[in-house]
Amino acid sequence: MTPRVALVTGAGGGIGSQVALALAGAGFAVAVNDVDAAAAERSVAQVLAAGGAARAWLADVSDSTAVDAMVQGIERDQGPLAMLVNNAGNPGRFSLLVDMSDELWANTLKVHLDGAFFLLRACARRMLARRWGRIVNIASLAGVHGTVGSGEYGAAKAGLINLTKTAAKELGPHGITVNAIAPGMVATPVNRELQAKGSKFIDAALQGMPAARLVEPAQIAALVAFLAGDAAANVNGVTIPVDGGAAVSMTTDAYMLGQLSARSAFLKEI
Ligand SMILES: NC(=O)c1ccc[n+]([C@@H]2O[C@H](COP(=O)([O-])OP(=O)(O)OC[C@H]3O[C@@H](n4cnc5c(N)ncnc54)[C@H](O)[C@@H]3O)[C@@H](O)[C@H]2O)c1
User: Fold this and answer.
1) Could you tell me the distance, in angstroms and rounded to a whole number, from the CA of residue 254 to the centre of ligand 1?
2) DSSP 8-class letter at 79
3) If DSSP codes are grouped into helix, strand and coil, which group holds residue 99?
4) N or C, fewer C-beta in 10 Å, the chain?
5) Considering only CA atoms, which of 181, 191, 151, 222 is closest in space to residue 14?
6) Which atom of ligand 1 is nearest the CA belonging to 153?
7) Residue 114 belongs to a domain with what CATH number?
8) Is 270 within a domain?
9) 255 is catalytic
10) Ligand 1 centroid, distance to 269 Cα (angstroms)
């Protein structure tokens, strides 16, 4: 039988590596994309060790030519793409809007929004012909509410949420569902390290969460696996928050406003 293939972008990272593992567990052969070769290979090894099938694909998601070549290569070498998880992204470099450089704005949108569009277009073209597909976009709470210090990131993620809705309408009639997940603060290795160092930013986030615990990457991965299955066939065009209830109180906003205002070059001059 031809394996069903799931492409996970940024699959060498904290959330992506868990998504790769969960989808392999759900029976997909995984195409592990990343720009970081070592991270991608670590993730592939993790899937293989768990008895799954995976292969690494190095490509920058913001390069549409590289994306098209990768998608073509995956179908040639691994089989037909049934699922796409748009997960690749850079951690934000916190900045107030008034201090933000053109470069930070453009780079963030390029990876988080252009990249997701290039992947969605390339995969949907193939899924359409087979009248079946699952696309999951990893957005963020920042894209739903806006968050102080992450204006460019929130705008990119809000764009991704809107793209999810349009794609769901255009592709839904052809048996393809498109949904987004909006995580709050996730216990990735980077965030765990910050927490261990007593980060006040993480403390502020925890204060705003009724659940008072960071989201586990495996919880995001389990939701992706659910959206991949037949039970989710009628879930389409929605953004599902996984945030421990953080949406009710954005305590990081007050903290970041204090921190970033104190070091704002622009605010010092007025
Ligand atoms: N960590 C959180 O708290 C959190 C919260 C909400 C949303 N998210 C989103 O979840 C996704 C994954 O985040 P993470 O915390 O696992 O980050 P991470 O840094 O651990 O992993 C991201 C991976 O993406 C890769 N990557 C970066 N730019 C790329 C590019 N241009 N092309 C291909 N790969 C690229 C990186 O090399 C890395 O392996 C991101 O889209 C992020 O915005 C994270």
Assistant:
1) 25
2) -
3) helix
4) N
5) 191
6) 43
7) 3.40.50.720
8) no
9) no
10) 35
